[in-house]
Amino acid sequence: MIYIVIAYLWAAILLYILLGGADFGAGIIEMFTSPKNKQYTRTTMYQAIGPVWEANHMWLIIAIVVLFVGFPAIYTTVSTSLHIPLVIMLFGIIARGTAFTFRHYDAVVDNMQKVYNKIFVYSSFVTPFFLGVIAASTVSGKIDPSAGDFLSAYVFSWLNWFSVAVGFFTVAICGYLAAIFIIGETTDDGSRRRFIRKAKQMNVAAVVFGALVFIAAKTEGIPLDKWMFDNVVGVVAIIAALASLALLWYLLLKKGKVVIIRVLAGFQVTMILLAITLRHYPNIVIMKGGKYLSLVEHAGQEKTIYSLAMALLLGSILILPALFYLIYSFQKNKGEWH
After folding, report:
1. Could you tell me if residue 53 is inside a domain?
2. Nearest Cα to 78, choosing from 19, 23, 147, 157?
3. Other residues' Cβ atoms within 10 Å of the Cβ of residue 318
4. What is the pTM of this model?
5. In this structure, is the dihedral angle defined by the CA atoms of residues 298, 303, 306 and 308, taken in order, positive or negative?
6. Do 16 and 59 contact (CB within 8 A), yes or no?
7. Does residue 286 belong to any structural domain of this protein?
């Protein structure tokens, strides 16, 4: 049962990066859109994410609940040592959702719309940035549970070049996913070309920040290159990601390939996550001094894990069909949603 729970945890994190990431990326795309095209970008974004944007946070909630119930030692360590970036990320989620709702449903159109727009855009950047910071910090070896001062315990555990570089890389990935997903919602060739250009720009940004991640890892003694390239699965995953990237850009030149390019974009991110996490599995938290927290060794009691696995399996039967039907319904009638 422990492996069922771990699989759900990994899947929840992946789906939050893919779906929530594309959601955040819509705001990032808006941030780098010229004033004359902002309104069209917002309208297209509403069409793409509006009906289901709130459901994306379900994956984050599942991941948190799984850690809290099934792996209390891991949950306690992460939520304590990284509470500052966690709080900032949660404030970003709240601020973004609030701004998204008010700027769309506010009955009075006034100068507050400008405030809502700024909050939405900036929180769309801040939230995935700190999500990346948190993810990087858990494996950076900087967390020190025995630290004797505030800075060492709660600041230097995440404020380092590696975590910051991963934060910017995550922002670029979110922008890339959003641009790819929004291409399918465009209504004319000009808009399609504009979003393809945005996707290319975000792709370049991801490559640049990805290189900075490796440089930062090398500087700080984090064996990222070994995690990704010192095993057959990691190498195959990276090759598959590069091959799918080439195929995606080829298909972007052809119309009517919306579903395929979205699947390819999601596949790339999945392969990158697989390459990064497989090598140090099941150690999900790597701390200072070579200490670690393992999903296998530091799991909760067997009865707890069994109950959690059964709840996840039964929940999937009830929730996932409804979620897929929700997405299908709005895609089928997307022109009617405003």
Report:
1. yes
2. 157
3. 8
4. 0.91
5. negative
6. yes
7. no
